[in-house]
């Protein structure tokens, strides 16, 4: 396998209305999916959820999400306030179940991530408030990063889907120490496929850049990646030790993580690389990067369902 199998630069993985469209067939795995939909002002898009559950997450702009059973039954409509950009604030979101018919419409236009996972249970469509998103500061020193746990395993109910956002200040490393989740070891490690979708903050007119490393763990496909990543790039991680994710000085890094796997329990259990796990022991002696948090979740928000 080569980097090209796992690193999909911006503009190389689109399909139809989607600027990015990665699903189980394309990734050659069983569960995880990610689409990025760009809508012009007044634009709308409909899709069938099929055998997957989905979360509609605004990356920029707001939208209306309508989910129905496609057979003349009831519909749920959610007004998503969204945000200016992934570097500006936490967003609200909408969960839509498998077998639904979904419509996304945006008066002002915007960009919307559709995080998905093949699943078995059909859960109710629901609104996720930005004010309920737990913002976590993880690591210290130059390993400091911010995690927006909007659909973490213990934060929001889903059948298979796990999704979080990570913001890494310029010059810092995240996804560190390198870790993996490619074996089912009860109570110790989950088997999860993972997608990293990147956006890198520019500095003036200079485009941002970052780096992503993945090394073989001895399981699966022997994933081995050293990728220079820019806004809109994606890295697929079916297996392997992943990390660090490196933000170039002067350019904050954002990535959206989408995970799912075959386990009966929906949980995120990781194993640190034995050569680098010691770094966690140094964090207690260092302060958190004072640039963090880049922002907090709002304290209150209007009702998004109608």
What multimeric state do the chains show?
A: single chain
Query: Number of folding domains?
Result: 1
Number of beta strands = 24
Question: Globular, elongated, flat, extended or rod-shaped: what is the shape?
Answer: globular
Poorly predicted regions: 302-306
Keywords:
2 helices, single chain, 3% helix, 24 strands, mainly beta, 306 residues, Jelly Rolls, disordered C terminus, seven-stranded antiparallel β-sheet, nine-stranded antiparallel β-sheet
Topology of helices and strands:
Elements: H1 3-6, E1 7-8, E2 18-22, H2 24-27, E3 32-39, E4 43-48, E5 52-68, E6 75-83, E7 93-96, E8 101-106, E9 110-118, E10 126-128, E11 134-138, E12 145-151, E13 162-168, E14 173-174, E15 179-180, E16 182-185, E17 189-191, E18 193-200, E19 210-215, E20 225-229, E21 234-237, E22 241-247, E23 253-260, E24 271-272
Question: What does this molecule look like?
Answer:
- With 306 residues, the protein is mainly beta.
- It has one domain: Jelly Rolls (Sandwich), CATH 2.60.120.
- The protein has helices at 3-6, 24-27; strands at 7-8, 18-22, 32-39, 43-48, 52-68, 75-83, 93-96, 101-106, 110-118, 126-128, 134-138, 145-151, 162-168, 173-174, 179-180, 182-185, 189-191, 193-200, 210-215, 225-229, 234-237, 241-247, 253-260, 271-272.
- The N and C termini lie far apart (48 Å).
- Mean pLDDT is 95; it is low at 302-306.
């Amino acid at each position: 396998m080569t980097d090209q199998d796992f690193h999909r630069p911006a503009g190389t993985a689109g399909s139809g209305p989607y600027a990015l469209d990665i699903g189980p067939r394309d990734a050659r795995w069983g569960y995880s999916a990610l689409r990025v939909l760009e809508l012009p002002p007044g634009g709308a898009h409909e899709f069938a959820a099929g055998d997957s559950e989905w979360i509609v997450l605004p990356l920029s702009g707001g939208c209306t999400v309508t989910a129905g059973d496609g057979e003349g039954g009831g519909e749920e409509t959610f007004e998503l306030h969204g945000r200016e950009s992934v570097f500006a604030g936490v967003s609200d979101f909408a969960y839509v179940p498998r077998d639904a018919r979904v419509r996304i419409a945006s008066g002002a236009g915007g960009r919307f991530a559709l995080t998905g996972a093949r699943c078995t249970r059909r859960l109710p469509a629901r609104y996720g408030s930005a004010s309920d998103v737990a913002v976590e500061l993880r690591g210290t020193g130059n390993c400091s990063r911010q995690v927006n746990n909007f659909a973490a395993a213990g934060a929001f109910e889903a059948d298979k889907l796990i999704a979080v956002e990570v913001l890494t200040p310029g010059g810092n490393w995240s996804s560190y120490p390198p870790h993996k989740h490619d074996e089912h070891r009860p109570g110790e490690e989950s088997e999860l496929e993972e997608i990293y979708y990147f956006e890198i903050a520019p500095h003036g007119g200079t485009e941002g850049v970052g780096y992503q490393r993945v090394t073989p763990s001895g399981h699966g496909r022997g994933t081995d990646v050293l990728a220079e990543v820019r806004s809109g790039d994606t890295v697929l991680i079916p297996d392997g030790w992943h990390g660090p994710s490196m933000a170039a000085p002067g350019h904050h890094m954002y990535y959206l993580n989408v995970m799912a796997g075959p386990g009966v329990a929906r949980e995120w259990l990781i194993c640190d690389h034995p050569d680098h796990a010691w770094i966690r022991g140094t964090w207690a002696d260092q302060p958190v990067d004072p640039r963090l948090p880049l922002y907090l979740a709002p304290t209150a928000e209007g009702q998004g369902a109608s």
